[in-house]
Amino acid sequence: TVPPPSVDLAGIDDLLTADEIAVRASVRQLCADRVDPYVADWFERGEIDDVRGLAKELGTLGLLGMHLEGYGCAGMSAVDYGLACLELEASDSGIRSLVSVQGSLAMYAIWKWGSEEQKQEWLPRMAAGEAIGCFGLTEPDAGSDPGSMRTRARQEPSGDWVLDGRKMWITNGSVADVAVVWAQTEDGVRGFVVPTSVAGFSAPLIKHKMSLRASVTSELVLDRVRLPASAVLPDVRGLRGPLSCLNEARYGIVWGAMGAARSALEAALTYAGERTQFGKPIAAFQLTQQKLVEMDLEYTKSLLLALHLGRRKDAGTLRPEQVSLGKLNNVREAIEICRTARTILGANGISLEFPVIRHANNLESVLTYEGTVEMHTLVVGQALTGHPAFR
Ligand code: FAD
């Protein structure tokens, strides 16, 4: 196969170390072997074949909880993790979501806020992909405002906790072995490590999605779920807990979205070079070139921003509003790049024979989850002006 034309005109690769380029190459190879040939079919059917086998392969490569230390995790840098997210999302946002939710949400919650016992029990298996995790924060009536959640956890005199409530739009829910569930308690919001085999827990699949179809999305139903006292995450109370995890996952999205953008840009470049109208390749028309140039420009700027934020994260200086800036810009630009690529492919742009419409549709979810455009605008707005405008 002919390699796609290079879209790295600015030479951003020169800012990466040889080790970082090697990590990227290994993820790219896994995606080429294990995801790319099948993912359009998974998207069309709304089902990932052998998701457990795929999770194990992702685990074997060290991609699950990749940036965490200890407990079988790979302990890689934030930039390595970002590059992995980019490659995974160049294949499909759904596959990157599987990895993000596992590593940055479910595993991170246990790693950061869990007891030693919880860490020992879950993290090594999750890092290996032998156990899949999900993260239940959103509810039918509580999305951008998770503080209004209704799921309740009540502690009985015996010490047992009893959970009642519903979570909505939960990635990996129906295939998860463990759910990190956030619930209101007398002490404010707390997190619980819930084995999904426990009585009263169910996770029906959400159907009819037109986006992120190569990803399991579920409702979580907690009907008098009884857990031992040891199930609560001991080290955090309040929304600080879930928000700290979301900040990790959002960081991955800053990079991941550029993977979808790169894939669409490469597809458009290749197509424009091959498609002839009015006697010449459409790439030779100025209007097409302008589109391609604008796409490459925004891709380049967004990738630089991702790398800058990654270096800050590795230096320990990354602030939440900086992650918001990255998520806001990069998802917005990625979706625009995919939509423009779609126009270059003409009618073929709407076909799953090409990756473009799949990426564009996927990014509609990415635009909304992990904080909507509006929420991140308000975070950046507050950082700029000092005025919170959330309510
Ligand atoms: P709402 O909060 O109802 O917002 C609707 C609109 O109102 C948005 O445009 C929003 O920005 C706007 N809005 C709300 N408040 C304000 C305000 N103050 N000012 C201005 N505008 C405002 N959640 C999980 O917990 N775990 C998961 O694994 C998970 N996976 C997901 C997977 C997919 C495919 C999708 C689509 C969602 C997933 N989510 C998950 C849920 C996601 O995080 C929420 O959808 C998101 O937080 C937005 O909540 P909402 O959909 O209820 O929208």
Automatic annotation (TrEMBL):
Pfam families: Acyl-CoA_dh_1, Acyl-CoA_dh_M, Acyl-CoA_dh_N. PROSITE patterns: ACYL_COA_DH_1 (PS00072). Keywords: FAD, Flavoprotein, Oxidoreductase, Transit peptide. Signal peptide: none annotated. It catalyses: glutaryl-CoA + oxidized [electron-transfer flavoprotein] + 2 H(+) = (2E)-butenoyl-CoA + reduced [electron-transfer flavoprotein] + CO2. Pathway: Amino-acid metabolism; lysine degradation; Amino-acid metabolism; tryptophan metabolism. InterPro entries: Acyl-CoA_DH_CS, Acyl-CoA_Oxase/DH_mid-dom, Acyl-CoA_Oxase/DH_mid-dom_sf, AcylCo_DH-like_C, AcylCo_DH/oxidase_C, AcylCoA_DH/ox_N, AcylCoA_DH/ox_N_sf, AcylCoA_DH/oxidase_NM_dom_sf. Its cofactor is FAD. Residues 17-130 form the Acyl-CoA dehydrogenase/oxidase N-terminal domain. GO terms for biological process: fatty acid beta-oxidation using acyl-CoA dehydrogenase; fatty-acyl-CoA biosynthetic process. Residues 237-384 form the Acyl-CoA dehydrogenase/oxidase C-terminal domain. GO terms for molecular function: fatty-acyl-CoA binding; flavin adenine dinucleotide binding; glutaryl-CoA dehydrogenase activity. Residues 134-225 form the Acyl-CoA oxidase/dehydrogenase middle domain. Its EC number is 1.3.8.6. The keyword Oxidoreductase applies. Belongs to the acyl-CoA dehydrogenase family. This is glutaryl-CoA dehydrogenase (ETF). It comes from Nocardioides antri. The lineage of its organism: Bacteria, Bacillati, Actinomycetota, Actinomycetes, Propionibacteriales.
